[in-house]
Amino acid sequence: MAAELVRGQNHPLPQARLEIRISAGSPVLAGATLGDERGTVRGAEWVAHPGAPTLPGIEVSPQAAAEHRLAVDLAALPEAVHRVTVLLALPERPGGPLRFGSLAAPRAAVTAPGGTEIARFVLTGLDAESAVVALELYRRQGAWKVRAVGQGYAGGLAALLADQGLASAAELASDVREAVARSLARAVPAPRPPDPSPASGSAQTGPAAAPREADPAGRRAADGPIDYTHPGRRSGTCPSPAQPPAAPPAAPGGHPPRPVAGDAVGWSMDERLYNQVWGMFEDLARTTAAYRSAVDFAGSRLEKETDQALADPRVRLGAAGDAAREAARARHARLIEQARAALDRDVAQLTAESEVVEPALPAACARWDNPVWHGYRVPAEPPMALRLGDLHLPESAPLRIPLLARLPLERGLWIDSGSAPGPDDASPDSADTRRLAMDVAVALAVRLLAVHPVGEFDVQVLDPAGTGAQALLPLTRTGAVTEPPAAGAAGVAAVLGRLTRRVDLVRMALRGGATDSLPPGFDAAQQLLLVNDFPHGFDDRAVNQLRYLVDEGPAVGVHLLMVADRADAAAYGPLLDPLWRSLMRLTPVPGDHLADPWVGHAWTFEPALVPPGSGILQQVLTEVTAARIKHR
Predict the structure, then answer these.
(1) Which residues lie below 8 Å from residue 234, measured CB to CB, with a gap of 6+?
(2) Given the DSSP bridges, would you call strands 83-89 and 131-140 parallel, antiparallel or unpaired?
(3) Phi, psi torsion values for 193, nearest 5 degrees
(4) Ordered DSSP codes for 511-534
(5) Is the pTM of this model over 0.85?
(6) I want to staple 471 with a disulfide (CB 3.0 to 4.6 A). Which of 438, 461, 510, 628 is the partner?
């Protein structure tokens, strides 16, 4: 049975040779783009369109039509291709529609070459768009999946191609329009409305609905032969530089292949693991969005069918009305069950992947209870990313996705010490939140110190009122900070003045191309400024210096980690708004939420705290201090 996809939902593809069948209410052009591991289209030669309908592994229609069949052979795609994006666009012709909103919703289906449907998707909700991404075939863990996208572009084909990173988007869109104009005389007219057939249970009958047969060699009865041969692949079983090894086959029984740590693109293991974690985050976000969309659709459909049953006075009461309402509830339950089954399938696969990825993460990205920390030694190379905490969603609560930040930090971090409702809607005590915020900040500072080579990272602390002394003990007791925390307004002015001069000096050296002329003995180590209880001890000059460090510091190796309650700085009014917007806000309260503007989820965030009673911070900092003394 074919999967009925909703926007954002994915489905595994059981075979390499496929057809993408498009049905629209008016002639449209169909095309496809090939994307690399980041989804970027590297050039016009990676776009199949009516002017260039054939690429290795894919063939599209050479004209505008109301029905299309795109042939795809995933095994014949170039090795660098990780995504195939199927797109539709309205051709420019006199009297033709200008937007998809004026047409019946297009339909896209993925089928086997013989016509057996694997998945289908109805592109609803389109309005002013004249181009739309219908489907996306993408490679994940050595297996291919299809995702329903349905993203429209009011700017047309040029905007769609530009969004995929194609530099010559406008020129290629113009070439496509010319190719379509030459073929419009051969455009296939729109099909007649389907005639329901109760006997067959199908919504479409007659010749338009009958799938054309395809022979094993890939020759379609009406469209001629398709060459599925990869131009760089030679016959035989031994891979060569021109013949990359084939993707690993699915496990017996049609199950997805067993996950492998580092099964993503990248030049190093750390980069592959980082990209794999990001892929897991993306998959969980999309599959959850698809589930929520399906639940919303099922609820609106139930409400509509119930209203229809109640609107007819002849069936409102009695057995007929009860039967109609019961049938609506059964359909609703069936839709919810199907959506939940798809979500559970995806979450189970991601959970299995997490179980092999988590133990393989390097120290910078590992939890504090990971055994990698117990055998800690100061590294010789700087890390690629840093773990800030864990993210999860209520529909898949046991599954945790690491929240990783690339290094060096492009944005400062703000640990919010203001009161916020916990997971049970109870606001923690203000003093407890402030203490917890400092614990999170110190754990992050220790992690940054520990994962950098000796002498390449340093931490400076501003604690004007001395309220963070207890939380700072791991840093001060081991001598991991080269200077004691600065106190009072004088300490704030001294530290900010020193770092501001440093930023000015390095920026001037970089602009002048004279980095080798920095003063003798200049400490080139990156600096992390940990600020507690902002704005206590800050005057207007100090605030302006802090804003300067936030804006200009990351580019020259000066980073900010601030523990503050925005309400404490209310006296400054909107003056500090740019400061808050430039920082990445983290909550120290386990079970609190972080907003995700990408898909609109409110992710539950768990900060990267040390397990209670653990002495791992002391152990790690002792090793860091010993290495620093030896290095001198």
Answers:
(1) 240, 242, 243
(2) antiparallel
(3) -55, 140
(4) HTT-GGGSPTT---SEEEEEEEEE
(5) no
(6) 438
Report the C-alpha gap between 135 and 151 in whole angstroms. 9
Q: How far is Cα 169 from Cα 46, in angstroms, rounded to an integer? A: 12
Taking residue 631's Cβ as centre, other Cβ atoms within 10 Å add up to 10
* Residue 610 neighbours by CB distance under 10 Å: 22
Please state, in angstroms and as integers, the Cα–Cα distance from residue 413 to each residue in 193, 445, 502, 519, following that order: 58, 11, 20, 30
In tens, the pLDDT along 499-521 reads: 999 999 998 888 888 777 778 77
- For 354-387, the pLDDT digits (tens) are 999 999 999 999 999 999 998 899 999 999 999 9
Long-range contacts (CB closer than 8 Å, 24 or more residues apart) made by 265-271:
265/37, 265/82, 268/384, 270/362, 270/365, 270/383, 270/384, 270/385, 271/384
Three-state DSSP state, 143: strand
**What's 596's DSSP letter?**
-
- Two structure tokens written together for 548: 């300067």
| pLDDT above 70 for 75 | yes
CA distance 216 to 1: 23
Mean pLDDT for 314-332 is 81
Q: Within 13 A of 19's CA, how many CA atoms are on the CB side?
A: 23
Euclidean distance between CA atoms 520 and 498, whole angstroms:
17
